[in-house]
Amino acid sequence: MWRGIIHAYRPFLRIASIDPITLHEGNTPLLQAPRLARAIGFSGSLYLKYEGLNPTGSFKDRGMTTALTQAIAEGARAVICASTGNTAASAAAYAARAAIPAIVLVPAGKIALGKLAAALAYGAKVLAVEGNFDEALALVRRAVEIYPIALVNSLNPYRLEGQQTAAFEICDQLGRAPDWLCIPVGNAGNITAYWKGFRAYKQAGRIPSLPRLLGVQAEGAAPLVLGHPVDRPETVATAIRIGRPARGAEALQAVQESGGRFIAVSDEEIMEAWRMLAALEGLFVEPASAASIAGLRRALAQGVLSPQVEVIVAVLTGHGLKDPEIALRTLSSPIPVQAQWDAFRRVLEPIIEKSVPITSPQEVRG
Ligand code: AN7
Q1: CA of 322, closest atom in ligand 1
Q2: Which of 11, 159, 331, 363 has the fewest CB atoms nearer than 10 Å to its CB?
Q3: What pLDDT shows up at residue 356?
């Protein structure tokens, strides 16, 4: 039985040896995506690590099981974080599991609905800060200097201990490391954790070679592409609306060591990739997650990746249900129909004529 990432990877994790605080996170699918690969001009194998299937709908759960387990082992009485949303929801859930309070600071009006709803439901004290994520994180860093509460942002090293297990899983699922790993970057904790994980697996003799890292940021929030902080970050992908990444220096070093690249993509490119993931592969993700595909598409178009690349893994960091508003705002509305056969038929017939394909699904998939 799968019992979460601490149980599965304990020998690789430097954390206290108490019973884990867990929701059995991890063990997420690694799905091949042939239609999407073809659509973005890649002829090798493209795999998607579907991290939206973690217990609270994002990859943050991998780092929160380790952060809360360590916090409890050290006697913490409460946890606090700043968050664009997913960290808040995850911290709130794992704090509930650990029976301690969580205080979460989120940028007022700039957090996706599903994340806010979840953080509230798990019983966190949610503080809506009149400012952005970077300002909220600065407040939290000051608070933990004064009060006896544990910081569970990815500045906390135990977050990275857990998050590196996604790299382990990818290697275990593939039987090797990919040639490239594409990953959205906000506060830069996750890309740092993946690099740590791949290096640990190589050192343990589990994989012969390391992947190159493609770190993807949104154009309006791209400090690691620009090489300087961004004071007023803006992007449709609110999860990565971050201008001063706390793990930025380490992420830059990881990407450089790997022989990889940082790349920025526009909001339009992100939303196009978001639609393609859902319509071509049946994967509904939040916009920040689609950034990895938008970045890969752009990297392919610009020749950043050589055509000889065989295996690419893109990380889909969060579930689409986190951000239902973006879907309703950008997609066409449902067609109203009366509950009577004749009325229904008048609506249905043109749809069938227009949209039922002439080619069989087998031909499309072939
Ligand atoms: C879906 O929740 O920073 O580079 O406070 O939610 O490790 O920050 C979220 C980040 C990518 C970027 N995709 O990861 C938060 C927060 C999704 C995210 C990222 C986030 P990092």
Answers
A1: 1
A2: 11
A3: 80
